[in-house]
Design a protein that fits this description.
Oligomer: single chain
Radius of gyration: 23 Å
Helix content: 55-70%
Number of helices: 5
Shape: elongated
Structural class: alpha+beta
Distance between the termini: 45 Å
Length: about 180
């Protein structure tokens, strides 16, 4: 295959992948920018009723049923996808929608309903805390992004008119990245 045909194929793949990735990158740019200017979103926390003497054992085979029992008693949906375990706490996931945090202190368990605003919900998607199907989409997007960048560099290297500019911008970008990440 000739160089112009390879370039045209790479450009077409680059454009199709960029179109597929555009919504996710707009999300990442919006939420990341907001996060960096300290707009992390807000969560309304409402204490839930936990039966006296109630305990949760993260290692128990019935842990999900135990969590659902408290949710049902508080008239909340029980359709969480999975649980996140940390020492002293259990969180229903995804956290890109309403979620519940169970916390243990001195052997006593409490629970809180957390209702995030839009910014917080979008940030949780950005961080990979959304539904499992969205996480799969993010993995595919990460692989596609790698291929888009690699394809873009290949297009630049294959084109005599853009080869020098590609090398220069790649070198400049690498130096800026290295300086800001590791030196400054």
């Amino acid at each position: 295959m000739s160089s112009p045909k390879v370039r045209n194929l790479l450009v077409l793949g680059h454009l199709l992948a960029a179109g597929l990735l555009a919504p996710l990158f707009l999300l990442v740019a919006f939420t990341g920018g907001n996060y960096l200017i300290d707009n992390k979103g807000e969560v309304i926390e409402t204490p839930l009723t936990v039966p006296s003497g109630f305990t949760l054992d993260p290692d128990a085979a019935t842990i999900e049923d135990d969590v659902r029992a408290v949710l049902t008693a508080n008239e909340l949906p029980t359709d969480f996808e999975y649980l996140r375990f940390r020492p002293g706490s259990i969180t229903t996931r995804p956290t890109s929608e309403d979620y519940v945090v169970f916390a243990e202190e001195d052997g006593v368990w409490s629970a809180t309903l957390n209702e995030p605003d839009l910014q917080y919900r979008l940030m949780e998607l950005h961080k990979g805390h959304g539904p499992e199907s969205f996480k799969i989409y993010q993995i595919i997007a990460a692989i596609t992004l790698f291929l888009v960048v690699l394809g873009g560099l290949l297009v630049g290297f294959l084109s005599p008119a853009y080869r020098g500019k590609t090398v220069g911008s790649l070198a400049f970008g690498t130096v800026v990245f290295a300086l800001l990440a590791f030196v400054v």
